[in-house]
């Protein structure tokens, strides 16, 4: 019993045997399927294509580096192996980013966004912006959709996961960005933000807080017991507030990248952050529980 | 660690490295060399073709500036004997930097290539 549980970890050690090619092929396949699952809404959204060629190269560079840091964080803390060393995390992240770039190039070409007439800055911009979510999706997909291993860790590692605050923050951030990025580039966010009354805005913020807290501590989501510490009321309140803060921060970051703050007054910017923060909260709570095993 | 990889893993890692480095390198060089010039649109008029009941003129709009132009309107005048005889317009949602977009304008009268005058009427910053 005990041996069976530790088998996947033995495979993951640096001294592991060479894996059969079919097995790695399946893992890449799972990753790519996961990448498409998470990013297809973005690949099919024209505001994202536009963001690709409107964004300045310096922004694109930051975006690529930011994606890479998120990948490093997710691969370090989110995968089912918690004993991986940093060099493995690094190579995994490079692979996922590379596959993300390849997959987004392929899809953009198939849907006619990249043609022989496209200029280099245009094509590279579109591919880069799309590749970010595809890469995170690939990372989540290869960690989550794997057969066997992972889901059942020992009591000890479970408690460790909940206690590991930086790890949980990174995963929460990944989840929030993954969900927020899906709606951030659309015109609808600005439209809602402009039209909401302050009362409705406050309502949205309260609902986000409430929902985040309920998902993490009350609704018995899979993994909620393992990844969120809830011993005292203080833990619950703090966890809820931190989750919402993560959601707001990641929403602001994503909105900034898509140029949603440019030329807008402070109140509109804040309203947009709150509106998108709703999606971010779902990502940072339910998403966070779903993307770690 | 690398010794434990099979050929597929090595291939995927190598291709990924090349791809990531290429995109990163391209974007970095682009960011480094880019200067802050607003959109600079150059409109080229092609050879008129007869259509069903009107004349079609192909238009190419090229953006030589460093910023994307949004909501681009292009006006094409058909001049005859010094005065404007007919005017057509073309609207393009976006012309990204260093990119070109193609379209058509139409005229009722037969245009002579020498009598066609085209220029961007205006564009917005995205």
Describe the protein in words.
- The complex is a heterodimer of chains A (293) and B (126).
- In chain A, 77% of the residues lie in helices and 0% in strands.
- Chain A is mostly helical and 293 residues long.
- In chain A, α2 crosses α5 and α8 crosses α13.
- The longest helix of chain A has 26 residues, at 266-291.
- In chain B, the strands form 2 sheets. In chain B, strands 1, 2, 3 and 6 form a 4-stranded antiparallel β-sheet that branches. Chain B has a 3-stranded antiparallel β-sheet with strand order 5-4-7, with no helix packed on it.
- The mean pLDDT of chain B is 90.
- The A-B interface holds A 14-21, 24-25, 28, 50, 53-54, 56-58, 60-61, 64, 87-88, 91, 94-99, 101-102, 117-122, 124-125, 127-128, 131, 259 and B 1, 4-9, 12-13, 15-20, 23-24, 26-28, 30-31, 34, 68, 94, 96-100, 102, 126.
- Most strands sheet of chain B: 4 strands, antiparallel
Listing every helix as H and every strand as E from the N terminus to the C terminus, the arrangement of chain A reads: HHHHHHHHHHHHH
**Would you report the number of β strands of chain B?**
7
**Oligomer category:** heterodimer
Total of helices of chain B = 1
Q: Give the proportion of residues in helices of chain A.
A: over 70%
Query: What is the overall number of helices of chain A?
Result: 13
Largest sheet of chain A: none
Shape by Cα distribution of chain A: flat
Topology of helices and strands:
The complex is a heterodimer of chains A (293) and B (126).
Chain A: H1 2-12, H2 21-43, H3 46-54, H4 57-77, H5 86-110, H6 120-144, H7 155-163, H8 165-183, H9 187-195, H10 198-217, H11 224-227, H12 233-257, H13 266-291
Chain B: H1 7-33, E1 41-45, E2 49-50, E3 55-63, E4 69-80, E5 83-95, E6 100-107, E7 116-124
Antiparallel strand pairs in B: 1-3, 2-3, 3-6, 4-5, 4-7
């Amino acid at each position: 019993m005990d041996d069976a549980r530790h088998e996947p970890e033995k495979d993951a050690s640096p001294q592991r045997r060479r894996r059969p090619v079919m097995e790695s092929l399946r893992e890449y396949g799972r990753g790519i399927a996961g990448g498409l699952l998470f990013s297809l809404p973005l690949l099919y959204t024209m505001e994202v294509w536009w963001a690709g060629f409107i964004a300045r190269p310096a922004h694109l560079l930051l975006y690529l580096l930011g994606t890479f840091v998120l990948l490093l964080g997710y691969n370090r803390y989110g995968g089912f192996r918690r004993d991986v060393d940093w060099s493995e995390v690094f190579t995994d992240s490079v692979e996922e980013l590379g596959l993300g770039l390849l997959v987004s190039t392929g899809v953009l070409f198939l849907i006619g966004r990249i043609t022989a007439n496209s200029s280099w800055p245009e094509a590279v911009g579109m591919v880069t912006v799309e590749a970010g979510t595809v890469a995170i999706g690939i990372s989540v997909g290869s960690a989550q959709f794997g057969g066997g291993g992972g889901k059942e860790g020992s009591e000890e590692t479970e408690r460790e996961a909940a206690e590991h605050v930086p790890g949980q923050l990174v995963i929460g951030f990944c989840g929030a960005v993954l969900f927020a990025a899906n709606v951030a580039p659309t015109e609808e966010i600005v439209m809602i933000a402009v039209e909401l009354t302050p009362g409705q805005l406050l309502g949205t913020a309260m609902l986000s807080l409430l929902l985040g807290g309920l998902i993490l501590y009350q609704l018995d989501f899979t993994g909620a017991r393992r990844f969120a510490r809830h011993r005292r009321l203080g833990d619950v309140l703090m966890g809820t507030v931190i989750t919402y803060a993560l959601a707001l921060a990641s929403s602001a970051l994503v909105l900034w990248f898509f140029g949603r703050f440019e030329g807008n007054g402070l109140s509109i910017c804040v309203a947009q952050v709150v509106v998108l923060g709703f999606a971010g909260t779902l990502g940072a709570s339910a998403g966070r529980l779903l993307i770690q095993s | 660690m690398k010794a434990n990889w099979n050929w597929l893993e090595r291939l995927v890692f190598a291709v990924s490295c090349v791809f990531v480095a290429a995109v990163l390198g391209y974007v970095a060089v682009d960011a480094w060399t880019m200067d802050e010039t607003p959109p600079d649109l150059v409109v080229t008029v092609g050879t008129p073709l007869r259509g069903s009941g009107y004349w079609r003129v192909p238009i190419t709009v090229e953006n030589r500036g460093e910023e994307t132009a949004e909501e681009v309107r292009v006006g094409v005048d058909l001049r005859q004997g010094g005065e404007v005889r007919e005017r057509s317009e073309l609207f393009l949602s976006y012309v990204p930097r260093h990119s070109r977009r193609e379209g058509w304008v139409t005229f009722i009268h037969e245009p002579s290539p020498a009598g066609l005058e085209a220029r961007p009427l205006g564009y917005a910053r995205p």
